[in-house]
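Model it.
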Amino acid sequence: MPDSEKLEPLPLFDREPAETAHLSRSFWGRLSDEIDANLGSFPLLACCFATGLTDGTLYNAYGTFVSMQTGNTVFVALGTSGQNNRPFGWARSLCSIGCFTVGCLAFSRLHKLIGGGRLRRTLFFSFLLQTVCVAVAATIIQTGIVDGRYPSQRDPADVDFLELVPVALLSFQAAGQIVNSRGLGVGEVPTVVITTLLCDLISDEQILLPLGKNVKRNRRAVAFVLTLLGAICGGWISKATSAVQPSLWFVAAIKAAITLSWLCLGNAK
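Modeled.
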C-alpha cells in the first residue's frame, strides 16, 4: 500500500466525546452511591439550625410555625374557640400542617421513585427542591408581594391571605428534612421535632458515657443546641433588619450548601 494511502492516526478531538461520556458515566455512577450515614448526620445537624432560624422568624412575623407542627395543632385548636392572637391565625397554622403533610407524602414518594433514601442522588435532588422552595418564599417577600416588615405596620385586623403562600412553601420543604433523616437512618436527628428529641436524650440509659462512646446522644444534644441557636439568631436578625427575608435568604444559603455537600460526602462502607 502506498504511503499516501496509509491510515492516519485519529485526531485528538475525536477522543473528546468518549472522554466526556466516561466523565458523564462516572458522575451519574457517583450519584448512585449510598451516603455514609455518619457523615450524612452533619448536614442534618445544619438543618436543625435552619429549622430554628425559620421558625424563630416566621412565628414573629406571621404567628405560625412552619416546621414544628405540635404548636400549630394547638393554634388550630384554640382557633375553634376564637382565642388566636391574630385574626385567622388558625388558618395559617392549618395551612402549615396541611402543606407539611403533603410534603411528607411527596418527599417519601420521591425517595421511592429515585431509588432510596440513602442514595446520593436522592438527597441531592431532595435538598435542591427544598432550596428552591425557600428561595421562592424569600423572593415573594423580598419583592413586596407579601409584607415582610417586622414588626408589621398593618392594622392587626387587616388579614392578608397571601401570607399563606410563603407559609405553604416553607412548610412543604420542612417535611423534606425529616423524611431525609429517616431515609438516611439518622432518626436521632429529626431536624423538626424537639419534644421527642429531648425525651430520647434524657431517657437514654447511657447518657453519662464518655463523649466518644454514645454518638446518638451527642447528635441529639447538638441538634437541640443548634435549633435553639437558630431560633435566637432568627429573632435577632428580624429585630436588627426589621424584615423577614434576610433570615430566609440565610436559610436558602444553608440549604444550597447542604445540597452541594451531598456531592462530596463519602460513600457508605
